[in-house]
Design a protein that fits this description.
Length: 237
């Protein structure tokens, strides 16, 4: 069964819109795990427009499943991760002004930098995943820099699936086959939803984990958080 890690950035966005502590991020993280969620993902950015660095610290004592911290490995992010020591760090090359992640790493051009960062995290026992497009050269590059996992950037799949084009899964299947051959663990995320998650997970060999935030929280507005978490778990079986 593929694990579900819930990205709670949108909960922090809602809280920050009014100040104060409503909704309570820590309670939501606790509830998600009690509802059956198998991990909590956060993606702190330098401007702290949703997840704050202090949130990342506070969640350390709350998350008893898998704690995954995503972000661009600039110095402040690296220092934060080394302080918290999460289960997994996912390296994402998002620009400071990006609304959301919009591309995977060029693991060839940035091989030297990524190798250094990966080794720094691994020395502390933190599993390292690299966010990549379903491009074979980039997956091979992730293996060469020493990552234990990749996270497939799934926006292109989700877009094509929404248009009714199920062939949009094909590059991801090919990428997964290569990753399995290279003994790279496979995670995935971005624009996955209740509509497309079952098709995606059933067609990607060796899919270990999906990280879902925006769609899941949006769906929960209508269906309830407990219900939605369990709907995803059923589709991921």
């Amino acid at each position: 069964m593929t694990k579900l890690s819930v990205n709670i950035n949108k909960i922090a966005t809602l809280r920050n819109a009014r100040g104060g502590n409503v909704p309570d991020l820590l309670k939501v993280a606790t509830d998600i795990q009690q509802f059956g969620g198998q991990g909590i993902t956060i993606h702190p950015r330098p401007d702290e427009r949703h997840i704050r660095y202090q949130d990342a610290r506070d969640l350390k004592s709350i998350v008893y499943t898998e704690y995954n911290i995503e972000g661009n490995p600039e110095k402040s992010f690296v220092d934060l991760v080394l302080e918290i020591m999460p289960t997994q760090v996912t390296l994402v090359p998002d620009a400071i002004d990006a609304i959301t992640s919009n591309a995977g790493w060029d693991t060839v051009t940035h091989a030297s930098f990524l190798t250094e960062i990966v080794q720094e995290f691994q020395r502390k026992g933190i599993r390292t995943s690299i966010f990549v497009d379903p491009v074979l050269e980039m997956i091979e590059g992730a293996k060469k820099v020493g990552a234990e996992r990749i996270e497939l950037y799934t926006e292109a799949f989700a877009h094509q699936y929404g248009l009714g084009n199920k062939k949009g899964i094909e590059p991801y299947v090919t990428a997964a086959v290569l990753a399995n051959d290279l003994e790279l663990g496979i995670n995935a995320g971005h624009d996955l939803s209740l509509d497309n998650i079952q098709f995606f997970s059933q067609n990607i060999p060796g899919l270990l984990e999906v990280s879902i935030g925006h769609a899941l929280i949006s769906e929960a507005i209508y269906l309830g958080l407990d219900n939605v978490v369990n709907m995803y778990l059923q589709k991921l079986k």
